[in-house]
Amino acid sequence: MIGTFVNIVAIIIGSSIGLFLNKRLPERFIAIFFQVIGIFTIFLGISMALESTHILHMIVALITGSVIGEALKIQIGFEKLGNYLRRRFKIRNEKFTEGLITAFLLYCVGSLTIVGALEAGLRGDEELIYIKSIMDGVSSIALASGLGLGVAFSVFPLLIFQGGITLLASVFGEFIPQVMIVEISAVGGILLIGMGISILDIKKINVMNMLPALITIILLMWLIPEINL
Prior knowledge:
The protein is an all-alpha fold and about 230 residues long. It has one domain (about 1-225). It contains 11 helices and no strands. The radius of gyration is 17 Å and the shape is globular. It starts with a helix and ends in a 6-residue tail after the last helix.
């Protein structure tokens, strides 16, 4: 768990720098930051998705996961949580919830999160998490400069998600085949593409409602692993 706590500190430091710059940078600089982040997020998502060797599993997982997420109204629930925190801590930033959701998705559904957390849990090797911490810290500067304090608050769901994977891996990790890790990462790549599209204001996509796909892909790979395209 040391790597996860280092990751949290990196995000808090980066967010603090971003909040400091927020009041000092002209709007055009913040806009170009977001364009870069949006384009890079789409690129990262595509590179992750192309690793999949079980396309049919990925499609079915995304469809069923999205239906489950829509039925559970995960996006709405997360937005309500963000709005509650904003009221509770008397935060004036109107983009607080958007920053919380965007940062959470960017920091938690990438391949480094999954593979790094598994490596930490299985072997005690924190190297990938440390690399991710540097990347998250840098990206949080740009995110916080445009979206505000919500980016810093993303460390709480990150602790639960990333830390949870590490703890589960320490107990069950040896039973997780490499192909399953690849497919989980590929589904996460699709979610990142959707987020990148939202960041670039091309179209609003409720990516949070697609999160159950990360679970349905595990079930599909476990139940019918022999089918692949």
